[in-house]
Amino acid sequence: MGVINLPSFYMDMEGARHGDLNYKSTTRDVRRILEEFKQKGVDAVVMDLRTNGGGSLSEAITLTGLFLKEGPVVQVKGPEGPAQCYDDHHSGIEWSGPLVVVISKFSASASEIFAGAIQDYGRGLIVGDTSTHGKGTVQSLLNLGEQLFRVPNPPKMGELKITIQQFYRPGGDSTQLRGVVSDIELPSLSSHFKDISEADLDYPLPFDHVEAQPFTKFDEVNPALVNQLKRLSAARVSASDKFKKVERNIARYKEQVAKKSVTLNEAKFLKERAETNADKEEEKAIEKLSENPSGIERDYYLDEVLNIVNDYINQMQVAKAG
Predict the structure, then answer these.
(1) How far apart are CA 250 and CA 276, in angstroms?
(2) For a Cys-Cys bond, which of 97, 99, 136, 292 suits 175, CB 3.0-4.6 Å?
């Protein structure tokens, strides 16, 4: 199994503009890694987006195209007019084998475009937190001085951040607020964190829908397969001491958030804080994942992801044999 941890959708725009043949690009780097995987006989690919907050829209589109033959990847709609569709124009597919995308509440924007397209096409499984971040909007900064005073070197009067566009998946659903919902959810404290997702913000734009684009779905994910994989994963998770600890931390965190009062007894306060400060442990794990030079932290969570991948491969082989 090949695992790729993608921290962002990056692109050296200056290098691309100047025709640098070796400019830095997410799609170019992942294509190279996929070639290495094929040479090594890898059976399945895991794309880990748990700490990916987004980045270049064009890279999200071209990267998605590595796993699709062709077709729509994302729709973008402004305040006026119909949604504009952006397609994968690269005919052919770089990786046609089993694909699993790992997401968290920290997976945002371009990550959601990639994961949403993969899910709409039925191209691979989405595994992880309940859903992604839910950021399906584009913002632009409006310079107030330039708008109010049409003169050279206008006074500095600050800027307004204005939402100008919204993203939609090939199937028409927005990635706003709802995000991309996992096919298979794994217990994680970050699924329950407050003030992290778009839905936790004040006055977020609502979920929206536009007309679906025509595209050909893959026959690689279906409800029966997902339900079977869920059952197999749930059995392992329920028997895992590590995941049992996560479940306890989730219960403590929920209890902590629901509390409406704080004890004034210092000793009791410190004891309660030590018992209920479960979110710090999860934050440390996320930081460790982000700071790992190799980008891959082999732990109980990734082990379960790989178990799901193994089940996925086996179930696909059974289906083909039947």
Answers:
(1) 9
(2) 136
Assess contact for 98 and 118: CB atoms under 8 A.
Answer: no
| pLDDT of residue 273 exceeding 80 | no
Location of structure tokens 């709802």: 178
Catalytic residue (one of 88, 120, 173, 311):
120
Catalytically annotated residue among 88, 135, 183, 191: 135
- Overall size of the chain counted in residues: 322
Buried b (16+ CB within 10 A) or exposed e, 133-169: bbbbbbeeeeeeeeeeeeeeeeeeeeeeeeeebbbbb
Q: Please compute the mean of the pLDDT values over residues 278-301 and round it to a whole number.
A: 66
Cα–Cα dist 309/126, whole Å? 11
Q: Which two tokens stand for residue 54?
A: 């987004």
pLDDT tens for each residue of 82-141: 999 999 888 789 999 999 999 999 999 999 999 999 999 999 999 999 999 999 998 889
Q: Is 120 an annotated catalytic residue?
A: yes
Percentage of the chain beyond pLDDT 90 is 66
For 214, the token pair is 């025509």
| Residue appearing with tokens 């997410």 | 26
The answer to whether 32 and 86 have CB atoms below 8 angstroms apart is no
Return the SS3 of 159. strand
Q: Considering 25, 56, 107, 109, which one is annotated as catalytic? A: 109
Q: What's the order of all strands across the beta sheet hosting 71-77? A: 84-88, 71-77, 159-168, 137-143
Tell me: the pLDDT tens digits for 154-185?
A: 899 999 989 899 999 999 999 999 999 999 99
Would you call 209 helix, strand, or coil by DSSP?
Answer: strand
Residues 6+ apart with CB under 8 A from 45: 1, 2, 3, 4, 34, 37, 95, 97, 98, 99, 100
Q: Percent helix, strand and coil across the chain, each rounded to 5? A: 40, 20, 40
Which one, of 282, 310, 308, lies nearest residue 51 by Cα?
Answer: 282
**pLDDT value of position 1:** 94
